[in-house]
């Protein structure tokens, strides 16, 4: 299940909204231009499955979204714990890159979670919206929206990424340290997973 938590951007002491209802999440995010929807979960697609298997499993949904948005590139990104040398360093570097608040000038950030989870933090109109996305969730963050993404200290997810621009992910970092003032993925995941287990 997805989770949305909204706080004032002054800090997380006051919770403005907390819901795991998909309809409420979509309704709360729509006014700020954020697309949220759920696609059918494919339990036959294992975590870390090759891109061709992922594309085959979600072809109908990918084609529908592509017909609506006319993306130039669709790819699959996967980061799951392994015993491979250097995995911890790779995961740490990836997390630190996306954990800094940024915007995108030329493209939306559209992600569908095939497996695993991550949190998008949207900083809009004096509020922080933490959107905990899990398997089956699609989130579209409009270009120009200030945000950051936390995959946790032990990332584990596979996602389909959609790009209008062939250059892919290009972030403009704000230099703000705001991400450090709000609960991170590990804290929210531990609390949320405990309540839904």
Short description:
By secondary structure, the protein is of the alpha+beta class. Helices cover 25% and strands 33% of the residues.
Low-confidence stretches: none
Number of E-type strands: 11
Question: What is the string of SSEs from the N terminus onward?
Answer: EEHEHHEHEEEEEEEH
Helix-and-strand structural type = alpha+beta
Q: What count of domains describes the coordinates?
A: 1
Number of helices: 5
The rough form would be described as globular
Please describe the biggest sheet, giving its number of strands, its sense, and whether it closes into a barrel.
9 strands, antiparallel
Mean pLDDT: 92
How much is the radius of gyration in Å?
A: 16 Å
**Per CATH, what is the topology?**
Jelly Rolls
CATH class: Mainly Beta
Describe this structure in words.
- It is a single chain.
- By secondary structure, the chain is α+β, with helices and mostly antiparallel strands.
- The chain has one domain: Jelly Rolls (Sandwich).
- Helices cover 25% and strands 33% of the residues.
- The chain is built from 5 helices and 11 strands; from the N terminus they run ββαβααβαβββββββα.
- The strands form 2 sheets. Strands 1, 2, 3, 4, 6, 7, 8, 9 and 10 form a 9-stranded antiparallel sheet that branches.
- The longest helix has 12 residues.
- The mean pLDDT is 92.
What are its keywords?
197 residues, alpha+beta, Jelly Rolls, 9-stranded antiparallel β-sheet, two-stranded antiparallel ribbon, 5 helices, 33% strand
What does the secondary structure layout of this molecule look like, with pairings?
Elements: E1 3-8, E2 17-19, H1 22-29, E3 35-38, H2 51-57, H3 59-69, E4 73-79, H4 87-98, E5 102-103, E6 109-124, E7 127-134, E8 137-141, E9 146-150, E10 157-163, E11 172-173, H5 185-196
Antiparallel strand pairs: 1-2, 1-7, 3-8, 4-10, 5-11, 6-7, 6-8, 6-9, 6-10
